[in-house]
Amino acid sequence: MAEHQFHLKADWPGLRNDVGTIETLNMKTEVSIPIEMDGPGIGTNPDEMLLGAAATCYIITLAAMMERSHIAKQSLTMESVGVVDVTNGIITYKKIIHKPTITLMENATDEEKKLTKRLTEKAEASCMISRAIRGNVEVTVEESIR
Fold this sequence. Notes:
This protein is of the alpha/beta class and about 150 residues long. The chain has helices at about 45-70, 110-125, 130-135; strands at about 10, 20-25, 25-30, 75-85, 90-105, 140, 145.
């Protein structure tokens, strides 16, 4: 079994509504509490980062599955939505909705279209981030296959 480690350095010099920084091997950005939660909204925030982790993991997994299944595509784009509930001061990350749009080649068969639909569901179940948050955050897929 191979183990991989990813490292992040964080600096938070101020109080709740100040701005900090995070840095990984390939990213450095400011972070703060989002405006929606009465923060300054500078840089990114944990809510966007969780959504970004889930979305990038899903779309990469889906692309890899399509490649392994020899399904050619013209494009694969996606919008994702993170739903956060704030009730009685308790913040809960409730749901992530991935909305991939897959444009297959013009000569795609009905079988390739059906397989692509199955892969959109399988990719969500297989993605490492989806598996990590399963049981805490609902993840759904609303695909559009053309």
